[in-house]
């Protein structure tokens, strides 16, 4: 039986391959000797840990400022984590939860880190345009050995399976010619992920879901550096896939 870690890595890798195949620019200076010099998923980090959560109370705990509990911290992702309950949370819900865990885990200045890539996941039978999980990647400009690098961190929030995971300890060369771009928080506040999904459904996504009898999944992501644009990409994946850009201007 595949472990939950294998399933997550497989899903993220498959999603990443679809994303890479649709990029509008080739990051030619981001590959040296065949080595990928930007983070893809939690497998990109030398240190990965996770904590077991109660999805029934987590969102309310965060919103009321209750101290987060780290009673069951694991050295990796949970093995064969069971489905606990269906979750439908918004972009702002996930950003608030990620902010609370960033503060609790790293206890440093969160303003020194910038959101670099975000992926929300939804099931096609989801009718309210909210999400069952989120993957958020943050970067910081820093120096190692006198050389400019990007430090990266990642938080994966999987409430349906009862855990939050994070990766840290990875750095990547900083290119002067092709610097990484952070997400414009004002833009995604004006056009949040759930609005992007609503617009994508109207642009053909609903027909794809119908053809798949809702046996499919939806990824809603923004990655300004990788996509060379600040817009949302909505990917419907089933027997085949449908990619729809949502302009945020």
Walk me through the structure.
The protein is of the alpha+beta class. The chain has one domain (4-246). It contains 6 helices and 11 strands. The protein has helices at 4-21, 58-63, 91-106, 185-190, 193-211, 224-227; strands at residues 31-32, 35-36, 47-52, 73-74, 114-123, 133-144, 147-158, 163-173, 217-222, 232-238, 240-246. It has a 9-stranded antiparallel β-sheet. A two-stranded antiparallel ribbon has the order 1-2. A hairpin with a 2-residue loop joins strand 1 (31-32) and strand 2. The longest helix is centred in the C-terminal third of the chain and has 19 residues, at 193-211. It is globular, with a radius of gyration of 18 Å. Mean pLDDT is 88; it is low at 1-14 and 20-33.
Task: List the topology elements.
Blueprint: H1 4-21, E1 31-32, E2 35-36, E3 47-52, H2 58-63, E4 73-74, H3 91-106, E5 114-123, E6 133-144, E7 147-158, E8 163-173, H4 185-190, H5 193-211, E9 217-222, H6 224-227, E10 232-238, E11 240-246
Essential attributes:
6 helices, single chain, alpha+beta, two-stranded antiparallel ribbon, 11 strands
């Amino acid at each position: 039986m595949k472990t939950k870690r294998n399933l997550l890595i497989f899903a993220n890798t498959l999603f990443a391959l679809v994303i890479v195949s649709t990029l509008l620019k080739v990051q030619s200076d981001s590959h040296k000797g065949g080595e990928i010099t930007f983070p893809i998923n939690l497998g990109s980090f030398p240190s990965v840990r996770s904590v077991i959560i109660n999805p029934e109370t987590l969102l309310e705990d965060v919103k009321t400022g209750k101290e987060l509990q780290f009673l069951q911290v694991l050295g990796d992702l949970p093995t064969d984590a069971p489905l606990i309950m269906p979750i439908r949370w918004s972009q702002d819900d996930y950003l608030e939860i990620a902010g609370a865990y960033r503060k609790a885990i790293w206890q440093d200045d969160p303003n020194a880190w910038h959101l670099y890539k975000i992926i929300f996941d939804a099931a096609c039978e989801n009718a309210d345009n909210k999400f069952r999980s989120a993957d958020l990647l943050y970067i910081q400009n820093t120096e190692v050995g006198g050389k400019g690098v990007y430090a990266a961190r990642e938080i994966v929030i999987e409430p349906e399976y009862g855990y939050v995971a994070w990766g840290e300890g990875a750095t990547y060369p900083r290119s002067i010619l092709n610097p990484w771009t952070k997400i414009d928080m004002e833009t995604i506040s004006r056009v949040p992920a759930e609005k992007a999904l609503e617009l994508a459904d109207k642009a053909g996504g609903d027909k794809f879901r119908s053809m798949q009898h809702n046996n499919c999944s939806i990824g809603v992501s923004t990655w300004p550096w990788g996509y060379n644009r600040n817009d949302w990409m909505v990917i419907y994946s089933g027997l085949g896939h449908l990619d729809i850009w949502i302009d945020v201007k």
